């Protein structure tokens, strides 16, 4: 999916934006990274172009324009607007998106939506914090340089005239997001609805808090491992993440609002209230409630009410035989979809009170944990009896079989994804071939081919690259049919979705059995974490 982000800047140093686009920066401190001689280090790969300006003199040209119209002279004025267009990481592999192609699409987008402005368009291929996704920075001077033809998205009469500033309204931002969605769909790139509220709303502040917390946790875990201690937690969790995970678990089993509220209070110590028809949650370590709206649509009233109603209907309907989900190995063939639907239980791991710092410091919290542990012990015993595990060996055999089936389904899913990637590449190059075929015919019939190639070098290069790729893919030399390719893509996409659902079911079932194993080890007084480390070391040797 491609997402659009906007940042308004009051920084009068336009050169700072140029340096950020061309040189390496520390994403945590937003300061440039210097070599041993104190010089800036260029980015490994980037594509930079200027619109209505030279990209390397962007700062001076912006200052000259500001001085001409006597604007952007005070500290509180917005000097520039920074738009970030981030593409889905899957587009690189599945749809053949490259940095050069992303740069061309973004230049088209910037010229269409910010006409008359001086703009820098720069594509980075390394992603934020080396994540690998291709993203584009569009930095425009807030002051328009040229008069342009009035467009439908312009709300004021002066929005098309030189000397007036870029005016971003709510409706204008909606238009920009819609244009991003239309662009990605036209180019057959991954895209979601940017105009609908997010199911899980993560702000920039939470994102950076999570990154800093994960970095600190990784450092502490490295020290613990060096001292011979196995860390019990490897993934940092923000307060909002804690609430989301707890709400998700509670919503999966609750049938009414009372069940939901009771589960959150007893299991996680989360207070729940309804104010003016809105759901709000209080983290145990906070003094102020967080609204469901700040967490995402899946944590608000409408979604949770529908979820509870669905749970109530499922409870009334006939449930499948538990033994059917237990014996998955007899009904599943590697590469095919399993013939069962996994229904997740509410089974949780028993908490180790001796290693829980909060329980040691808070007696009331320790009592709640003890009560929860007793409930989980009872549920574990009931689970074992219900599924007919007579010995530890039976439980271990079921777990290993579930683990094997999960691995087989994962291989099948990866194989389908690989075939889908190949078909997407063929569709991409077939479209590229057909789009530039007429230009190539003109080139063949041209009297001065050298001059024609110079004038249409980009189109001819795309055509020849597509023809070379398609001939290499087809053994008989025939070009593939676009209709057949799209039909094959639909079949593979449907198979991929089915395999993903089956894989998630198998993985959840494997995790559930592992929870039962761990709780049994705890009942018997064994250190499961230490045993797991020993098993890994044995597997390596």
UniProtKB/TrEMBL annotation:
Residues 453-512 form a coiled coil. Residues 314-327 have a biased composition (Low complexity). Keywords: Coiled coil. Residues 311-330 are annotated as: Disordered. The keyword Coiled coil applies. Residues 44-145 form the MobA/VirD2-like nuclease domain. It holds the Pfam family Relaxase. The keyword Membrane does not apply. This is Relaxase/mobilization nuclease domain-containing protein.
